Amino acid sequence: MGIWKNITMGLLATLAPALGAMPTMEADAVQAAPLANPSTENAQDLGPANASQTVTASVILHVQNPTALQNYIQQTETPGSAQYHKFLTTSQFAAQFAPSSQTIQQIEQELQQYGLQVVSVSADHLDLQVQGTIQQFDNAFNTVIDLFKANGQVFRAPKKPPQIPVALLTNVLAVVGLDTANAAQSLTVKTPNVSGMPSPKAVLPQGGSTATGTPGSYTVGDTANRYDINPLYQKGITGKGETVGIVTLSSFNPQDAYTYWKGIGLHVSQNRIQMVNVDGGGQMDDGSVETTLDVEQAGGLAPDANVVVYDAPNTDQGFIDAFYQAVSDNQVDSLSVSWGQPEIDYLPQMNQGQSYVDELLAFTQAFMEAAAQGISVYAAAGDSGAYDTARDFPPSQGFSTPLTVDFPASDPFVTAAGGTTVPFSATFSLGKVNITQEQPWSWQYLQNLGYQGLFPIGTGGGVSVIFPRPWYQSGVSGVQNSAANQAFTDSQGVLYGSPFTYNLPSNYAGRNLPDVSMDADPETGYLVYWSAGGGWLAGYGGTSFVAPQLNGITALIDQYVGGRVGFLDPVFYQLMQQNGYGANQPFNDLTTGNNWYWSAVPGYDPASGIGTPNVANLAQAIKSMG
């Protein structure tokens, strides 16, 4: 996980005015464990890191005037407002909402007292790259950095959370980069490898079509057919002049994307992909399929858009820096990410009334800046149904499976991309499946046939117990409060050496997700071209497909409207309430199925969100609002 926090509740005042009331978590711990870094628990301590080794960490600064920033964001998405779609440049954002150059100079001088040097300052004045030896960081932040080994990975990490020097507390929100454990997982799922279920065969489009019509081998052409995108293509709307961005934690081979587009019959520019290696870039590993499909999907739905890939190491620092790099560059018009983790992983210890949320707020600041600059941001809602921790903390190890949601999709300034199963029929060894209506993706229908081990695979969705309900969901029928009697339990003491239970907030009016949904079930899923995995592959899915699809769709909408449309959640909920549903409206309603807990009902629900888009209608509705 690699996520640990060191911030008192008092420090939340920086962003609390913009976020609203934060919940408290009740800790019924068997022992009062000392403050420690959760990523080092249950890991082998290999001893002190090389004290003379030079490393670079990121010092994230507080935004200024957060309430004014949220108000500005709201006005940019309020038709009739003088600020409607009047988005800021990076320099304008820095001047209004970031620490001044004088303040940054004072921070540099304070860090220099410990021998640390600020080697670069992001254009938005929020992300400082600070260099020094491990010993100097130990001294500056009152910690001890060791090497650790867990799950085959060797990483460095502080043995206890660092303490921000008193002189910096006013301006410094978080220090990341001292811990190099993995930070997130890709949200990609393949068809289940269980006895009696056949492996799907790749089918490519035929006869000049870009679609296959074959579940498990769907392409962006099939997505265009299903979600009413073709009328935009017929008007010459192809994403020309727009730029989509991908944030990812694994590198990839750009040629794979070109092969995919050519293989399904799309004609694209041969120099449309730009790679930006953040903090040295990510590795070529199993996560590379995630990056590959993200680019194939976003760039395929918007075939004339440019694509910028922000590729970072899978660490807290890499994940955060990638977003700050993207928003500071302000080059992309829309941005998607298909990596995440359960949001309650960010609250691993609730000791002595403290809540460790500084890194969450660091992400939130980047998303708020994106919104103020008109960059639409999408995140996959998760692939473990309503029980997001089940993939990280399986019950077999003594963990409970409380209702949880995935982050960064749960952030109130991100559009959460949920998943569906589209209609299909199939005969398996244990019986037949006949899905007649599009519904929230849940492999409960396969488990009902008798296949085992599929709980809780399906679309993420539910209620945040960290982020309060945002203004755009206020008063929306179907939006839920958090469920009662939910607790995160480690009955075997795997994490901290002794059993513990943390009771999650009940009836908390938290941010609901997803916001919108599209096909994500691998059984009705997609083709991927991934050379490292063998070339053309079928039966891929996950909400990781939906986030880049919405990214590409936004490029089309931006071109159709004639400029950036920005953070779309407020617009989506307004259109749902004003226009209702139907083939001639922006959205279709899903009213059957569930994500293992939350059920689809008329209107909004935490299983499918608002529903699925009719993209051409949506584009016209947004254009008409201006």
Automatic annotation (TrEMBL):
SMART domains: Pro-kuma_activ. Keywords: Calcium, Hydrolase, Metal-binding, Protease, Serine protease, Signal, Zymogen. Residues 223-625 form the Peptidase S53 domain. Residues 207-217 have a biased composition (Polar residues). Pfam families: Pro-kuma_activ. It comes from the Bacteria. Gene3D superfamilies: Peptidase S8/S53 domain. The keyword Cell inner membrane does not apply. The keyword Signal applies. Its cofactor is Ca(2+). Residues 1-20 form the signal peptide. Residues 192-217 are annotated as: Disordered. This is S8/S53 family peptidase. It comes from Alicyclobacillus mali (ex Roth et al. 2021).
